[in-house]
Write a structure and sequence with these properties.
Shape: flat
Distance between the termini: 37 Å
Number of helices: 7
Number of strands: 26
Helix content: 10-25%
Strand content: 25-35%
Length: about 575
């Protein structure tokens, strides 16, 4: 049994803001300081005092966007959209960007906003995005209110997203609907088993810098169906990511069934896709109805180590091919290359592949926590119309993502970084006060800076990209800031400084004052696995106790990030 030092777990009580209105917003991870430069953000009053908060990255907010659509318009019909931008600042200039997918167009854009149309590679946009953007003013008790009119021009799922930013503070709100020719409805329904379409083109790995690691034990490979009465099925599973690139999906659950007209379908064999998204599975080809098996294949966003599941049904996303009748014995039936037919579900498959990148990077072969003998499954709740995010629940041991979050792989990995810490720390998640809200470059608390800084570091090191990239395109360099960087506070109570220190300890791209270059999967990860650290200072002490480098060179790399442990 692996034994760790533990400490008493304390959880602060926080609460939701705005009552029912907040349910329409998608808060996400904050980026920097408050709407007024140099002034810390003052959250809206909490409305559920005394409630227990078990959510990272989700709590009080200083800026909010609320959307209301008068009705779900059918093709050719129109609807009024009302928007409110609220802030706790006395007066803020706010930039608002409203996006419509190709299936919705502006009849009248909100007054004061400039409308435009541009091509978009994101599958959910259907090839184009119609924008309305501009600036306005809002202040405490004085919301900025806008209205416009949209028209439905194509059937299918559609999402309207509005993003407001004031200074470096930001928030988004979304409305989702499914447009039909005669009737439309709010929300995006997902079937128990979804359809597939052929994958067009040659797919590549999204995170090719990482070697593939099977998520389950690889079974002994069967012969090429040379034995009489045996057959095999092969093919590949793919998706289109938010940049429009066709990608393979490794470690996806593959289940081969016999379509049985006289009863329930027979499960023939299960397995996982490989690094190239392909599978090759063999089975007994004796069909009780005569002839060969009538085969179809089902792909699922799950394996024994992680799952992307619908936030409400708690079921993984499943996709089935058409039936290949009477598969002949003695050979392999190549069913072809497939992807989800519904563009609204591409994000879920992309989130699964992002988790696959996290799995491929982490040291060890069996569990997320390499010291465990019984593995905890990584759970990610997501839906194409989800506004339940973005956070990790320490009570439910699950990540909750908003609909657009998979467009930002580092955000997915950041939230799962919290899940990893909770797993490794055996549910003894560190006390992290003053973390609602929290901002990468600003002072919060030593506990908040450690938990948030580590979570982002995990995403950065997996992706090998020291940039935080939010859905919608905003970015923040998290490696370059040092002493005197505008907008950044100093010290180990700043999550961005903890993050920068961990990046500089391990990266090989060194700046002046940063001369460290250790294996991130070595000392940093081992100390994380072997101790429960409540702050970065405690983590550094644990690192020293483990015999890893805490000398002048390592201290200099921390100092480069304004953390001074030299005395």
């Amino acid at each position: 049994m692996h034994v760790r030092h533990t400490h008493f777990r304390r959880i602060t009580a926080r609460a939701l803001t705005f009552g029912a209105l907040l349910a329409l917003t998608a808060p996400g991870l904050a980026v920097a300081q408050s709407p007024v430069a140099g002034e810390q953000c003052k959250p809206f009053p909490q409305t559920k005092a005394g409630s227990t908060d078990d959510r990272t990255d989700d709590g009080a907010h200083c800026l909010a966007v609320v959307l209301r659509l008068s009705e779900a318009p059918a093709i050719g019909s129109q609807a009024r959209i009302d928007m409110e931008v609220l802030t706790t600042s006395e007066d803020s200039e706010v930039h608002l960007d409203v996006e419509l997918p190709a299936g919705l167009v502006w009849v009248d854009a909100p007054a004061g906003l400039r409308s435009s149309t541009a091509d978009s590679p994101a599958p959910v946009h259907g090839g184009r995005v119609h924008r309305a953007d501009g600036k306005g003013h809002t202040g405490a008790g004085r919301p900025w209110r806008l209205s416009g009119t949209v028209k439905a021009v194509a059937a299918g799922p559609a999402g309207i997203r509005a993003t407001a930013s004031a200074g470096n503070d930001t928030d988004s709100g979304s409305v989702f609907l499914t447009v039909g020719s005669q009737r439309s409805s709010f929300g995006i329904a997902v079937k128990e088993v979804n359809s597939v379409s052929p994958a067009a083109g040659s797919a590549t790995r999204a995170h090719a810098h990482l070697a593939h690691r099977p998520a389950e034990p690889v079974p002994t490979k069967a012969s090429e169906a040379s034995a009489a009465g045996t057959a095999c099925a092969g093919g590949s599973w793919n998706y289109v990511d938010h940049t429009g690139a066709l990608r393979v999906s490794g470690n996806t659950r593959v289940t081969v069934y016999d379509d049985d007209a006289k009863g329930s379908d027979d499960l023939l064999v299960t397995g996982l896709t490989g690094a190239d998204g392909r599978f090759h599975l063999c089975f007994d080809n004796t069909d009780e109805e005569g002839g060969g098996q009538d085969v179809y294949v089902e792909f699922g966003t799950e394996n024994q180590n992680w799952v992307i599941r619908h936030g409400k049904s708690r079921q993984p996303y499943r996709f089935a091919t058409a039936v290949r009748p009477d598969v002949p014995s003695g050979g392999t039936a190549d069913i072809g290359a497939f992807q989800p037919a519904d563009a609204a579900l591409m994000r879920g498959v992309e989130a699964f592949d992002t988790m696959n990148a996290g799995w491929n990077w982490k040291p060890g072969t069996s569990c997320w926590d390499a010291r465990d003998t019984s593995c905890r499954r990584g759970i990610v709740n997501w839906a194409p119309d989800s506004t339940d995010g973005t956070y990790y629940s320490t009570r439910g041991n699950a990540v909750h993502l908003a609909a657009e979050d998979p467009d930002a792989p580092v955000l997915v990995l950041h939230e799962f970084g919290h899940a990893l810490m909770d797993d490794v720390y055996e549910d003894d998640f560190p006390y992290s006060p003053n973390c609602s809200p929290h901002y990468i470059p600003r002072t919060s608390s030593a506990g908040c800076a450690w938990t948030e800084g580590f979570a982002t570091w995990y995403g950065v090191v997996v992706l090998d990209d020291p940039t935080f990239r939010w859905p919608g395109g905003r970015t923040l360099d998290v490696e370059g800031p040092t002493w005197g960087t505008t907008g950044w506070d100093d010290g180990d109570a700043v999550e961005g400084r903890v993050l920068g220190s961990m990046i500089d300890l391990a990266d090989s791209t060194n700046e002046t004052g940063d001369t460290c270059s250790e294996n991130p999967a070595g000392p940093l990860w081992n100390t994380f696995l072997d101790h429960v650290s409540g702050t970065f200072a405690q983590f550094w002490a644990h690192r020293a106790a483990d015999g890893y480098d805490v000398g002048a060179n390592a201290l200099g790399c921390l100092y480069h990030n304004t953390i001074d442990y030299r005395r």
